[in-house]
Structure formats: structure tokens, C-alpha cells
């Protein structure tokens, strides 16, 4: 059973839900041509996970998400889910290890070449092993 709490982040409204539901919302943002909104949605998962109880956390990640329509965002979401569980000292769901959540070519999420070195050094292993690289502080929230 999903809660009805809502967060508002500029143009992005995200209700607490599952990784599967989030993948669908990310896909909708991408179809609308809003990749920055899709990134915010993916990163927001970590905040909601951290603020949830264990029963909710398991529910949030129990079901394997369908594709977002983008291999990059599929890998990003799986990496964030894995990172969330690892940050709490818990084994992530097995679906995060499915080959479909790994990129063949690296993706530097910031898109800025000048930040590639920072991303290589600071990306958590849950993302780097998938070929997804983020800059220092990208997973922090206020």
C-alpha cells in the first residue's frame, strides 16, 4: 500500500512509491524531453528510501522495474537502489544484478567533460560498476 505523501521540486512532483513506479515516471519525463527532471526523480529515490521504515524500503524495491526507455536511466535507477541498500548495510534485491541494468558504454551524468575526473573518483561502486558516473555530492540532499 503506497502512501499519498507528495514532494514538490520545481516541475517535478513525485509520490512515494516503488522503484517500478518511479521507472515509469522517469520514462514519462524522458518522453516529454525532460532529462533533468528524470535525473531528479532518480536521485529522489534515495531520499525517500532513507526516510522510510524497513517494511516500506523492501516494498519500494521488491518488484523489478520495467525499462524507463533509456538504458542509461535503467542503470542509474538500479545503481541508486543498490546504493540505498548498501548505505543501510543491507543486501539489495537480486534484480539490480540483471544484465539489463548495466551499460556497455560509460555515462557521465553531468555531461560536462571537465567533471569527468571528479565523477570517476567519487562515484559509488554501485553506479561505477554499471558504467554510470556522478560527481561528488550528487547523492546528497538537503
Bulk shape: globular
Distance between the termini: 27 Å
Specify Rg, calculated over alpha carbons: 14 Å
Q: Biggest β-sheet: count, sense, barrel?
A: 2 strands, antiparallel
Strand content bin: 5-15%
Number of helices: 6
Strand ordering within the main sheet: 1-2
| Average of the residue pLDDT scores | 89
Which bin fits the share of residues in helices? 40-55%
Low-confidence stretches: 1-15
Number of strands: 4
The topology string of helices and strands comes to EEHHHHEHHE
Gist of the model:
With 142 residues, the protein is mainly alpha-helical. The chain has helices spanning 19-31, 35-50, 54-61, 71-87, 116-122, 125-128, and strands spanning 6-9, 12-15, 107-108, 132-133. The protein has a domain at 6-101.
What does this structure look like?
The protein has 142 residues and is mainly alpha-helical. It has a domain at 6-101. The chain is built from six helices and four strands. It has helices at residues 19-31, 35-50, 54-61, 71-87, 116-122, 125-128, and strands spanning 6-9, 12-15, 107-108, 132-133. The strands form two sheets. A two-stranded antiparallel ribbon has the order 1-2. A two-stranded parallel ribbon has the order 3-4. A hairpin with a 2-residue loop joins β1 (6-9) and β2. 32% of the residues are buried.
Amino acid at each position: 500500500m503506497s502512501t499519498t505523501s507528495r514532494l514538490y521540486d520545481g516541475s517535478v512532483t513525485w509520490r512515494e512509491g516503488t522503484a517500478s513506479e518511479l521507472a515509469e515516471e522517469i520514462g514519462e519525463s524522458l518522453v516529454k524531453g525532460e532529462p533533468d527532471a528524470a535525473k531528479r526523480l532518480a536521485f529522489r529515490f534515495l531520499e525517500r528510501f532513507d526516510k522510510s521504515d524497513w517494511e516500506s524500503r523492501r516494498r519500494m524495491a521488491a518488484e523489478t522495474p520495467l525499462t524507463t526507455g533509456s538504458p542509461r536511466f535503467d542503470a542509474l535507477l538500479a545503481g541508486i537502489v543498490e546504493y540505498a541498500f548498501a548505505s543501510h548495510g543491507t543486501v539489495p534485491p537480486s534484480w539490480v544484478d540483471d544484465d539489463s541494468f548495466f551499460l556497455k558504454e560509460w555515462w557521465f551524468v553531468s555531461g560536462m567533460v571537465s567533471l569527468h575526473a571528479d565523477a570517476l573518483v567519487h562515484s559509488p561502486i554501485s553506479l561505477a560498476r554499471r558504467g554510470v558516473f556522478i560527481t561528488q555530492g550528487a547523492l546528497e540532499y538537503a
